[in-house]
Amino acid sequence: MVTPDRDDPDDRSPIDAGDLDRIYRVEGPRLARYLGRRLPSGQDALDLVHEAFLRFAKARSDRALDRPGAYLQRIARNLLIDRSKRPESKFAALHVPIETGDELREEARQEQEIELKDMIGQYRQALDELPRKTREVFLLQRVHDLTYREIAERMGISIPTVQYHIARALVHLDQRLDRL
User: Fold this and answer.
1) CA distances from 73 to 86, 117, 137, 162 (A)
2) CATH code that applies to domain 121-180
3) Is residue 151 within 8 Å of 137, Cβ to Cβ?
4) Helix or strand run (H / E) with residue 139
5) So where are the chain's domains?
6) Fewer beta carbons below 10 Å: N end or C end of the chain?
7) What is the pTM of this model?
8) Which residues are registered as beta bridge partners of 60?
9) Strand locations in 26-172 (E)
């Protein structure tokens, strides 16, 4: 008689339905807001929330997750990345349904320009909140396309210090822009 091996991935149990319901009630609205800020349609955001939870529920784990919200957000980010790689999504913003005619609505274009200006303002404000050195390292890498080595040489710091400042900037920007 063969006994199941504890480390066998096929022997792991799925996430408990009660736990999934509790996690959905807590994390679902937060995930919907997160995706809603990144997608043009609220329905698309809800679809991805459901897809994220479907993948989360299908995941098998032999231990409870300490931070299911973080795991769900990673799933959602991966879904966004997958979605952006699809050919049809690259041109979705330019799509004009036949029944609306050939002209883009001026109102929608103005609204998009206002939202873009607002987003740029929020991004700049978040950048201004960074410590001077962290902001400088981040801008050298992201705006001027310098390598970590070039930044380290230019600023007289080590490459791990450059990595630290980049990570610090990314965490701050992600947290700051997620709250908006």
Assistant:
1) 20, 26, 27, 27
2) 1.10.10.10
3) yes
4) helix 132-142
5) 11-86, 121-180
6) N
7) 0.41
8) 14
9) none
Neighbouring C-alpha atoms within 13 Å toward the C-beta of 37: 13
* Structure-token pair, residue 142: 């992201």
Residue 166's identity, in one-letter code, is: I
Indicate the range of 22-31, 79-88, 136-145 predicted with least confidence: 79-88
pLDDT of residue 23: 80
User: How far apart are alpha carbons 6 and 159 in whole angstroms?
Assistant: 42
- Render pLDDT for 46-100 as a digit per residue (tens, 0 to 9): 888 888 878 877 775 555 667 777 888 888 888 888 777 665 554 555 555 555 4
Mapped onto helix, strand or coil, the DSSP state of residue 147 is: coil
**C-beta separation of 49 from 39 below 8 A:** no
Residue indicated by tokens 């199941």: 4
Tokens 């990673």 identify what position?
Answer: 74
For residue 80 the two structure tokens come to 């966004």
